[in-house]
Design goal:
With 313 residues, the protein is α+β, with helices and mostly antiparallel strands. It has helices at residues 2-17, 49-61, 65-78, 83-95, 100-113, 118-130, 134-148, 151-162, and strands at residues 43-44, 47-48, 174-178, 184-193, 199-204, 210-218, 224-231, 236-244, 250-257, 263-270, 276-283, 286-294, 297-302, 307-311. The protein is built from eight helices and 14 strands. The radius of gyration is 22 Å and the shape is globular.
């Protein structure tokens, strides 16, 4: 019975480590509300405001955040009511180490200029989604929907209804884990980057009670990512290391608890096109189950091939 219980804990810990993986970056859309400044035709030197905006958005897409800030700020200096520049700079601050205070100021300024700006509402909500403040994020989205009736805001609210919420970069912030009969076993919420540069994931029971939390960090070269798991009262109970190759392709994960016989290893499984299709789980050197990605969900199996758990995304 103890072995089964430990394996369940390990299985959850391994599931957690997969939340560390990075998703792709998406650019923010922009609004063109009548009566507001969004692109403009003013020029400065050899570049027009429209060209400066395009450069800011180009650098944001290329993840050159410092240059993106330079160009968006230049637009704002020339055209202080340019909604598109405030939103672009806000998006950049969010993606550049989640500088929420600066981003929030820019989104709020965009709304002061244009109270119908859909992108400003979505940007503000994203800040609170990343911080785990679901209530505030939902309040902002509902206000935005009331003002604009925009489908993008409605779709984001639908994520809250399904408890499957992503941030503006498409990363899952809420992930639900179900038993084979569809009963919610637990769910995880990714809080994102903290002030000290680490990230945190909280694990909750179906009734919303915090069960444990996990702190993530990474090596300077990015080839190893670390996690520490704590009980709700702050007691350390597990450590894990996720190892990547030079192309940031996940290879395997090791995880150990406080006991002498509490070690697990998870090995990534790829298909012929080198796409991740799942991973195999080992307990003290013995295969005890595997996970496969099926229709966008993680499906967990025991060593006999019986499904034990699945996620909603």
């Amino acid at each position: 019975m103890m072995i089964v219980e430990l394996k369940w804990i390990s299985l959850k810990a391994i599931a957690l480590l997969l939340l560390i993986a990075l998703s792709g970056c998406s650019s923010a859309a922009t609004s063109q509300a009548a009566g507001t400044h969004t692109a403009g035709t003013q020029t400065t030197g050899e570049l027009s405001v429209a060209e400066l905006l395009s450069l800011g958005e180009k650098y944001l897409l290329e993840l050159d955040y410092e240059q993106a800030i330079v160009y968006f700020t230049r637009v704002i200096e020339i055209d202080p009511r340019n909604v598109r520049a405030f939103i672009g700079r806000g998006d950049t601050y969010v993606r550049w180490n989640e500088q929420f205070t600066l981003a929030q100021a820019d989104y709020e300024m965009a709304l002061e200029i244009d109270e119908m700006s859909v992108d400003a509402f979505l940007g503000l909500a994203d800040i609170f989604i990343r911080q785990g403040d679901w209530v505030r994020a939902e309040e902002i989205l509902r206000l935005g929907l009331e003002r604009t009736s925009d489908n993008r805001i409605r779709e984001k609210l639908d994520e809250f209804a399904s408890q499957s919420v992503t941030d503006s970069e498409g990363r899952v912030r809420i992930r639900n884990y179900f038993t084979p009969d569809g009963t919610l076993a637990f769910y995880m919420y990714e809080l994102g980057v903290q002030a000290d540069g680490t990230s945190r994931t909280n694990e909750y029971a179906p009734d919303g009670r915090l069960q444990q939390y996990h702190i993530h960090s990474r090596s300077e070269d990015g080839l190893e990512r670390y996690s520490e798991s704590y009980t709700a009262d702050g007691t350390l109970n597990r450590r894990g290391v996720q190892v990547y190759d030079a192309n940031e392709r996940w290879l395997y994960t090791t995880s150990s608890g406080q006991g002498a016989e509490d070690d697990s290893r998870t090995v990534a499984v790829y298909d012929e096109q080198d796409e991740l299709i799942g991973w195999d789980n080992y307990w003290n050197g013995e295969l005890y189950g595997w996970v496969r990605i099926e229709d966008g969900r993680n499906v967990f199996y025991d060593a006999d091939g019986n499904m034990t758990m699945y996620t909603d995304n």
